[in-house]
Design a protein that fits this description.
The protein is of the alpha+beta class and 212 residues long. It is 31% helix and 14% strand. It has a three-stranded antiparallel β-sheet with strand order 1-5-2, sandwiched between helices. The protein has a two-stranded antiparallel ribbon with strand order 3-4. GO terms for molecular function: cobalamin binding; cyanocobalamin reductase (cyanide-eliminating) (NADP+) activity; demethylase activity; FAD binding. It comes from Corythaixoides concolor.
């Protein structure tokens, strides 16, 4: 429910919908690369002009909207920003309140070792660890769900030591991706997918056999 999200944030970040409005957080799993992105690129290779992943996600979410012709469906993508440069929604907070992934933050560590350093939080999924992405939000403004029960996300990094290790790795060594394996995962990115996301965006077109 939108109200779960708004309840944990300052008014500047609130979504402008009634509290009982139904919303879905959209995640991409490791298999997205082979099952969605590559087929999309093969089909649309002459139309891709911006970012293949963003356009692939947009394509699939527009198809979801088509499945509900009688409903108003608002889509907010993870990369969208307001004129103020603030993100249109805080993806990790949304994933946490929806019960999709646990958003580990500095406040989840009792004995904070970082002093004045800025420490960013990170979401961990109970099945995929850090090998997933939050892609967007689907909102159904005309559907109110007052009786929907909130489920807490699975706290899969439950010890103090592991949480410190996770935040250390994510903040100071994120390039090596070790934080993604903070728990035992069921599935991770393929080597091809790792190479794709490790490549600067402007050079990714070559990897997919596209010219810019």
């Amino acid at each position: 429910k939108v109200g779960w999200y708004n309840a944990v944030l300052q008014p500047a970040f609130h979504l402008p919908y009634p509290d009982d409005t139904l919303a879905f957080i959209v995640l991409s799993t490791p298999s997205m690369f082979d099952k969605a992105l590559k087929p999309f690129v093969n089909k649309e290779r002459f139309k891709i002009i911006r970012d293949p992943v963003d356009q692939c996600v947009s394509h699939h979410l527009s198809r979801v909207k088509e499945k509900f012709p009688d409903q108003k469906v608002d889509v907010i993508f993870d990369y969208e920003i307001l004129p103020s440069r603030k993100p249109k929604f805080l993806a990790q907070t949304a994933a946490h309140v929806a019960g999709a992934a646990f958003y580990y933050q500095r406040k989840d560590v009792k004995l904070d070792p970082w002093g004045k350093k800025k420490i960013y939080g990170v979401c961990i999924h109970p099945k995929y660890g850090g090998w997933f992405a939050i892609r967007g939000l689907l909102l159904f403004p005309d559907i109110q769900v007052p009786f929907l029960e909130q489920r807490a996300p699975v706290d899969c990094v439950s010890t103090e030591e592991k949480r410190i290790e996770l935040l250390e790795q994510f903040n100071f060594h994120w390039q090596d991706g070790r934080y993604r394996d903070i728990i035992e995962v069921k599935e991770r990115y393929s080597e091809e997918q790792k190479a794709y996301f490790a490549t600067p965006p402007a050079e990714r077109f070559k990897l997919l056999g596209l010219t810019q």
